[in-house]
Amino acid sequence: MARCEVCGNEYGMTFEVHAQGAVHVFDCFSCAIHRMAPICEHCRCQIIGQGVEADGKWYCGAHCSRSDGKVGIVDRV
What we know:
single chain; Prokaryotic metallothionein
């Protein structure tokens, strides 16, 4: 059994996430989100969806990027 790197739970059905050359082990999606999701530079929420990137910073959406002074960012629907 492997151990979740967030909560420490030993679980027979953990899963690995391979990202940027590192391997992370989690026991559930909420632990994976807690560790892996970027944080919006403006409102500080965890970005679970696609989000937007502007000048190397991540935002949860176009509204937050514009509120932080970025221009030309639009949400797509």
